[in-house]
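[job 0417] fold request received: Alpha/beta hydrolase
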Amino acid sequence: MSDQMPNLQPQFLTVGEGEAAREIAMLVRPAQAGNNVPTLVWLSGYRSDMSGTKALELDGLAGEVGTACIRLDYSGHGLSGGSFRDGTISRWLEEALTVIHHVAPNRVILVGSSMGGWIALRLAQELARPDGQKPAGPKLEGMVLIAPAPDFTSELIEPNLTAKERKSLAERGYFEERSQYSPEPDIYTRALIEDGRKNRVLDGMIETGCPVHILQGMKDPDVPHAHAMKLVEHLPADDVVLTFIRDGDHRLSRPSDIALILSAVKGIIRTSMAG
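[job 0417] inference complete; emitting structure tokens
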């Protein structure tokens, strides 16, 4: 495996200007010479980073098939600078878009987990937008969305806020919630929730223009599986596969889950190479 797993060193890219500037860490695996498989792009979930199990497995797959792989840490996450509390969907989307434009692959497959699924869907919209000011983005060849949480702030958090949480948001600008995955509580800010409304994708038809494979655990305590079905309804123009994992949780990091995820990515790769 050593020839397939170069010792990748993080690179840093400044995103934003003035007080909004932050250093974004990325790990970029180069493609093997002559390889024309689309570049894989990993988009982590809320409070996750580019060194998690699924991210490493995706990078390993890229090494096996000889293609490039881009991973990044959003600001306030992992190796990146910036404060987590300043994070919003718009800010993290800007970072992902800037990294993709910086690396400048011709074709990409986006793989997004949880909140990363929302960012992937917003990236699809941004990459399709004609804009003379920005460099032309890569062609989107497919998406694999793992327990995707589009619009989670308005769909899953806001309707379920307790009186105490609403009071904390109003008075302190944030509320905390115990995390199942970390000793530190999850923090949700008013800025994140307000910005989330501006980035809604489940308020109309989403046109990604590419095949989409969604994997969703049916025992997911964070994103109910009905949310994945709702997303499918908003993707009427695309070739969509929805795989339910009956005993799957939110993380989908067991070996059996990883095998399904990698199989989905390989399926999208095959489709992109046949086209």
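[job 0417] notes: Helices lie at 53-65, 89-103, 115-128, 152-157, 163-172, 190-198, 225-233, 255-274. Residues 49 and 78 are 5 Å apart (CA to CA).
[job 0417] exit 0
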